[in-house]
Amino acid sequence: MLVSAAADRWAAIDAEKVARGAYLTRTHAWLAPQVLRFLRAAQPKSIVDPFAGDGDLLRAVAARGLGPVRGFDLDPARGFPVRDSLARIDAPRGAVIVTNPPFLARHSAARKRVLDGVEHWFDGLPHADLYQVALDRCLAAASHVVAIVPETFVHSAFPKHRVASVTVIEDRLFDDTDQPVCVVCFGPESRPPSRRIYYRSRRKLLTQAALDRLLPEPAGRPGIRFNDPAGQIGLRAVDGVGVADRARFVQARELRYDRERIKVSSRLVTLIRVEGLAARRVAGVVARANAALEALRERSHDLVLSPFKGNNHAGVRRRRVDYAAARALLERAVAEGMGDGRAVGAG
Ligand SMILES: C[S@@+](CC[C@H](N)C(=O)[O-])C[C@H]1O[C@@H](n2cnc3c(N)ncnc32)[C@H](O)[C@@H]1O
User: Fold this and answer.
1) Cβ of 57 below 6 Å from ligand 1
2) Residue 1: per-residue pLDDT
3) Does residue 74 line the site of ligand 1, with CB under 6 A?
């Protein structure tokens, strides 16, 4: 299948592997000290991995004496009792679930032509990815759940009231995918956003409440149009692999990108038209929007931005600015640039 239209790259897809989400962990970097503390405090009678693969997570917890372990998998070749854990999980009383469920977005299943084989698991559920179906099943079966899931969980609509902590993992966990992941610890009770803690590796960053306060909300002012080939402001929405190559706003002429390639669906590089913004003010608006973006990244430890596949050369996760955040930053920078806080489009 085509993996990059821009680069005209094709790759063979292992349909079975994709449909099963069978990417196995190869290191134990996910078992950060706070995750281990959470598991110990849960006093598990046993640990269950309903998507056990070759049992790597179970080996990691068994090696730390966390209790007897049991695994299940849909694939008989894995050597565990066969269960369809996306349909239902039966965990013994007092069991804690530790797992790395299959990840497969519905749209990606359609694109990779495996949707027919997995669609029934989504039936009647609002979820957009199989890992969310798996989380639903795990949370119904156990009071405590530790799950390695895509980092996009952070900004997803998945209910977070039982989340105790989210640990962003930048170390490479898998050999065969560079999907950015995090470890989510769910407890038995609902807790307020001020008691849900975000970490990167072992470092505590901020609470969900603090993160929510930082999310930039666009006011929806008219006069700012994204994906407009005639735009005066460019946006490179994704960090490059070079450390200095950060996502940023630029003046359109500095974008070095063919205007013809800007489409309504462009998400990574685009041009933005700001009605009524005089040419002499563009540089100032770009500078202010970039300063606000960098300040936001620092305050939120980058977590207001979405993860993007792979790390940069310094081993730091690459990030993407979504257009809602970019619009909010630009709205403010333009209003300041007008010098008098007038609405964009006021001339
Ligand atoms: C991402 S792998 C995780 C393996 C293991 N936990 C690890 O991290 O090494 C997902 C595993 O879930 C299994 N799986 C996929 N769909 C399943 C289902 N409906 N029920 C049970 N296991 C399933 C796959 O066969 C695969 O082994």
Assistant:
1) yes
2) 39
3) yes
What SS3 state is found at 157? coil
Question: pLDDT by residue (tens digit) across 57-81?
Answer: 999 999 999 989 999 999 999 999 9
Pick the CATH number of 2-213 from 3.40.50.150, 2.50.20.10, 3.40.190.10, 2.40.160.40: 3.40.50.150
User: Chain-wide mean pLDDT for the chain?
Assistant: 89
Closest-CA residue to 188 (of 43, 70, 51): 43
Domain extents in the chain: 2-213, 224-337
Residue where the block lists tokens 């940023």: 248
Q: Ligand 1 mean position to 20 CA, how many Å?
A: 6
pLDDT in tens, 162-172: 999 999 998 87
Q: Is residue 152 within 6 Å of ligand 1 at its C-beta?
A: no
Cα 331 to ligand 1 centroid, rounded to whole Å = 44
Nearest alpha carbon, ligand 1 atom 15: 20
| Residues with Cβ within 8 Å of residue 340, at least 6 apart in sequence | none
pLDDT tens, position by position, 151-193: 999 999 999 999 999 999 988 777 667 789 999 999 999 999 9
> In angstroms, what CA-CA distances link 199 with 161, 202, 301?
17, 6, 10
75 CA → ligand 1 middle, Å: 8
Instruction: Tell me the pLDDT band of 22, cut-offs 50, 70 and 90.
Output: low
Q: How many angstroms separate the CA atoms of 22 and 132, rounded?
A: 16
